[in-house]
Amino acid sequence: MRSRTRSQIVAAMFFIGIGLMCSQFPYLAYGDEKTGDTQKPERLITMAVEYPGIELSAGKDVDMNIIFHNKGRSDETVDVWVAEQPDGWDTLIKTYKFTVTSIHVPSGDDKSLTFKAKPGEDVQPGKYEFRIEAKTRDGVFKMSESIFVTVQKKEEETKTSKEITLNTTYPVLRGPTDGKFEFSVEVNSDLDEDEVFDLFAEGPKDWEINFKPGYESKYISSLQIKANQSKNVSVEIKPSFAAQAGEYPITMRVNAGGAKAEIELKVILTGTYKLEAGTPSGLLSLNARAGKAANLSIYIKNMGSAPNNDIQFMTFKPESWNVEVKPEKIETLEPGDMKQVEVTITPSKDALVGDYSVAIEVQGEKASKTLEFRTTVKASAAWGWIGIAIIVLVIGGLTALFRKLGRR
After folding, report:
1. Residue 330 sits in the same domain as residue 230
2. What is the pLDDT of residues 276-293, one digit of tens each?
3. Last residue of a domain, one of 152, 182, 202
4. Cross-strand partners of 211
5. pTM for the structure as a whole
6. Confidence of residue 31 (pLDDT cuts 50, 70, 90)
7. Which of 269, 300, 317 is the last residue of a domain?
8. Does the residue 19 lie in any domain?
9. Contact 323, 298 (CB under 8 A)
10. Which ranges of 163-303 would DSSP assign to H, the alpha helix?
């Protein structure tokens, strides 16, 4: 009877010990995971022109993008220049407001510059070649692209008819890139007969331009005006989402039989303000221990079309916690640019095991973005070893007790 009772006690203590050990193993297995893109080469950058071959009328300017692709893991600074150009042409490489000779391309990013070429008065119809060259500062990567421009004969110009006039009270409108612009244009007819007036508009690439009757919402491409009368036409303009801040001319033309007229309108874009933020892995969680610092990186990217200045960070954390962001401020972030900041989160020494919320608000000039991190505070690994030591002592004590009882 005594032997059976002793066996039951030993079995019960064995299972209790196993349960205590299993409860501590998750803390022993704690570790940080790191992610990285090992598939990319250390350095790889390419250059391409948007349209290697184009045709245009005599007197027209060339305006196209030069695109740089950084497919490597290292940021690159590239010098770029016009290596060859035909006689009689003026060329430059610029952004929307600067003439540039070099460009910084972050890892995994694409950057664009604008190539402009203006023909002189003596440039005749024919085929012309321009060569763009670029190289990294250390000369490891050298790139070259050619642009072939075919200049065609200039179309015969038609004089503006004095029998049609176009007038507007507000020829210049100003607003953000994601807004709509609506001009009101009065079409005056001095013709002696009723006529159908065809409407045309010429603006920047990928912009949406529509005509509407005055005080109506439907779109039209023509309208009928009686002899010696006038009508109002609304010109509704929606810029391309990729348009940069700047001034953009819009030309409106009206044809009626052999008579023609045109008017110049202008849209001034102030740009859009939008910030994107996140972590390289996309995860918004991390593990920490009470009183111990935990680190993570976040990126800030300007998704708008205007520079975002004076970007600061505001943190929201549990009481007695410490959150540091370095750098504490980003002076300016150009459209499409991205910067990385380091965040250090230190839980309170008295923090209990569990999940906590830590938020970081990225405050830009006219845009903001908030990131909320789930921070899991885990027990120290030392408690796991202490638990194992207690289990060993308990089992050792019970074994000694059973031996002592067995001798009786």
Report:
1. no
2. 999 999 999 999 989 999
3. 152
4. 220, 235
5. 0.43
6. very low
7. 269
8. yes
9. no
10. none
E-assigned strands of 270-365? 275-278, 285-289, 294-302, 308-316, 322-326, 329-333, 338-346, 354-363
pLDDT over threshold 60, residue 28:
no
Pairing assessment for the beta strands 246-256 and 259-269 based on DSSP bridges: antiparallel
What is the dihedral angle through the alpha carbons of 363, 305, 246, 330, rounded to the nearest 10 degrees? 40
Verify that 256 and 301 share a domain, yes or no. no
State the CB neighbour count (10 A cutoff) for residue 47: 22
Q: For 383, phi and psi rounded to 5 degrees?
A: -65, -30
Q: Which two tokens stand for residue 233?
A: 């036409």
Q: Which amino acid is at 67?
A: I
Percent of the chain with pLDDT over 70: 85
* Tens-place pLDDT, residues 231-257: 999 999 999 988 888 899 999 999 987
Structure tokens at 61: 């300017």
Please choose, from the candidates 191, 200, 318, 184, the residue with its C-alpha nearest in 3D space to the C-alpha of residue 254: 200
Rounded average pLDDT over 221-227: 90
What is the domain extent for residue 322?
A: 1-31+273-408
Query: Residue 247 carries which DSSP code?
Result: E
